[in-house]
Structures are given as structure tokens and as C-alpha cells.
Amino acid sequence: MTSVNISYLQGILHRREPSAHKGDFGRGLLIAGCREMCGAAILAARASLRSGIGLLHVHAAASIYDCLQAAVPEAMVQRDARHNDHFADEHLNIEKFDAVALGPGLGQGPDQGRAIHALLHQNASFQKPMVIDADALNILASQQDWLHLLGPHCILTPHPKEFERLIQSSQKLNYDERLEKGIAFAQNTKYILSLKAPKPLLFSRMENITSIQAEIRAWQPAAAAMF
Questions:
Q1: pLDDT per position as a tens digit, 119-128
Q2: Could you give the CA distance from residue 106 to residue 134 in angstroms, rounded to a whole number?
Q3: In whole angstroms, what separates CA 113 from the centre of its chain?
Q4: Cβ neighbours of residue 192 under 8 Å, at least 6 residues apart?
């Protein structure tokens, strides 16, 4: 098991040059939020910026445009072309982006499902790094035949209940069972699995388990509200 701690991160995070600018640090696309869940898009956008991305574009429902732009002024927000209240654009082009994240607060209606399916088909050609979270994960769990569209740079980020849905488990899994199932899932697929927990676990075919050693203290109250 690889442990992610400060020493590990210091070895992979490089110091930025004083002359660097935002164009040097990548262009990302976040697809998040709907009329009822603007907050999820705001939190995800702020987290994306905190990661160090240079240019962040957020694709969101027109009904949350003002709220999102006011809360995250650094982001470039674009309205969905098909629906006022949720993600529905099946022709959204991701070619110019270096990475894509989707799912927080999207909702799980048929429009979102069709748009996500089209996006995954498109990315099967582009092979962009892609983070799939929240509602996008739940849609994916209900459409198991879409999993073959995911490339090796896709990262799935389920909390325990979403993971149970993803692997179609009929029972609640304890920590040891999630560990066992996570290893099996990673070995049988080509993408990366990040299981949310106080100390998150990351699984991939290349590296069985990576453990983040710093405890995420906000997880416990958040998890209590989820289940």
C-alpha cells in the first residue's frame, strides 16, 4: 500500500515559477449543478480552483448562472444550450479541455442521462482525464453497459452507498468488504477508483491501494447527513 502524506506530495508537486501564468496550468471543464442544487456546483468549482487549475470553465443550467458566477467569479460559466434548469446538452464539445469533471448536483433525470451518455461516447475518442462523481455516478451505476466507454484516465469517486450501487451490491458493505471489493473492481477495470472516507482509499490496476493518511475531518458530519 502506498501512503499519501506530505513527504509523498512534495515529491510530485512542483514549485511554480514566478513568471508562470494561468495558461500554463491547464484548462478544465466542470459540468455540475441544476436549479435545485446550485451549491454542489459552487463547492465543486471552488475545489477545482483550489487544486491549482489554470482556467476553469463551468457548464451549468441557465437558472443558476447568476448564483454561480457571483459565488465563483474566477470561473468562466457557460449556460446549457438545451435546458434552463439542468444539464441536457448532448452536443457539448470537450475537445479544447485538458480534463473534465461531472456529476455534483446534476440531478438524475432522462435528459441528464442522455447528455452524459453522449459525453462518454465523445470522450471514448478524446480520452481526456475525467472525474465522475455524485449524480453522474448514480446514472452510470444504473447503466452498467456504459462502463466500457470509460478510459484509463477516468476517476470514479463514490461514497460508500454510491459504491454499493456501482458494483450492484445487495447489502451494505463494511470497511473490510469495501476494501476487498475495491481491489477487485480496480483489477477488473481500467479506471481509477477513489472511495470517499475519513482517510480516502484509491485503487487502480497499476497500484492496488493508495491511502491518504491525513484524515478529512469534514467527512464524518457530511457522511452522517448522506445516509
A1: 999 999 999 9
A2: 8
A3: 16
A4: 153, 154, 155, 156, 186, 202, 203, 204
